[in-house]
Design a protein that fits this description.
Among the domains are: 10-71, Orthogonal Bundle (Arc Repressor Mutant, subunit A); 91-130. The protein is 59% helix and 8% strand. It contains seven helices and two strands. The chain has helices spanning 10-22, 27-38, 42-54, 75-88, 95-105, 110-126, 141-147, and strands at residues 58-63, 66-71. A two-stranded antiparallel ribbon has the order 1-2. A hairpin with a 2-residue loop joins β1 (58-63) and β2. The two termini are 41 Å apart. Zinc ion (ZN) binds next to loops. One of its GO terms (biological process) is negative regulation of DNA-templated transcription. GO terms for molecular function: DNA binding. This is CopY/TcrY family copper transport repressor.
Length: 148
């Protein structure tokens, strides 16, 4: 995702999911979907929508007395961005561990597992035996062990 790197909060993500699903929506519709689940006041939801507009994740268009909201970034783009952010915070040598944990904890369909198996089989052909750590000294235990 090129246009913005502003962090999105969990609360804002809940709003985005409604906007992604509806494509074009009003604050009324967002409030209807989220009030029960989140126990938020309508004013809280409106504040969150405004933040998303300010962060340029959502476009607002005036339609008579109401505003129509639509997404400026797709759900796929955001998920990819968030995933990359997660792995940026992780040492190269620990990525496999993190992925294993995710795979182990998530529910997967037969089709998902087939796709993952195919990707892994392809990767296995070219994967190095070990990975190098590119972390900053003092931010990763890899270097600590090096020094000993
Ligand atoms: Zn490292």
């Amino acid at each position: 995702m090129s246009k913005s790197v502003e962090v999105i909060t969990d609360a804002e993500w809940e709003i985005m999911r409604v906007i992604w699903t509806q494509d074009e929506t009003t604050s009324r519709e967002i409030i209807d979907v989220l009030t029960d689940k989140m126990e938020w006041k309508p004013s809280t939801i409106k504040t969150l929508i405004t933040r998303l507009v300010n962060k340029k994740y959502v476009e607002s268009k005036k339609d008579g007395k109401h505003f129509i909201y639509s997404p400026l970034v797709s759900e796929e783009e955001m998920i990819e961005f968030e995933t990359k952010q997660l792995f940026k915070k992780t040492c190269n040598t620990k990525v496999g561990e993190v992925l294993s944990l995710i795979v182990e904890e998530q529910e997967l369909s037969q089709a998902d597992i087939e796709q993952l198996s195919a990707i892994l089989a392809e990767k296995k052909k070219k994967a190095p035996k070990t990975l190098e750590c590119h972390c900053l000294k003092g931010q990763c235990r890899c270097h600590k062990e090096e020094a000993q």
